[in-house]
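[Discussion] Sanity-checking designs against the backbone

I'm trying to build intuition for which residues belong where. Below is a structure token string of 81 positions. I'd appreciate it if someone posts a full sequence so I can compare it with mine line by line.
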């Protein structure tokens, strides 16, 4: 079941959103906003990013890193473990 969500935005912001939605080929502003919301759910938080960096730094300091000349080589090394 669909529900209506009402937003109060400055006129310029509303124009910018409508223009972006049209330029990007969305059938409506609602479709554009839905797309943006779904894309946002795939983005990690700053807190998670910092945790991942700290974990990677610890792994590096502990010698748990591999040396590879390419991403392909690294993936092959990772897959073989």
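Best answer:
Here's mine. Compare freely.
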């Amino acid at each position: 079941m669909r529900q209506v969500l009402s937003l109060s935005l400055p006129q310029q912001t509303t124009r910018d959103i409508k223009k972006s939605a049209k330029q990007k080929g969305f059938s409506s502003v609602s479709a554009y906003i839905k797309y943006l919301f779904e894309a946002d759910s795939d983005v990690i938080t700053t807190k998670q990013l910092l945790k991942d960096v700290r974990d990677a730094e610890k792994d590096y300091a502990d010698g748990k890193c591999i040396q590879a000349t390419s991403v392909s080589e690294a993936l092959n090394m990772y897959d073989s473990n």
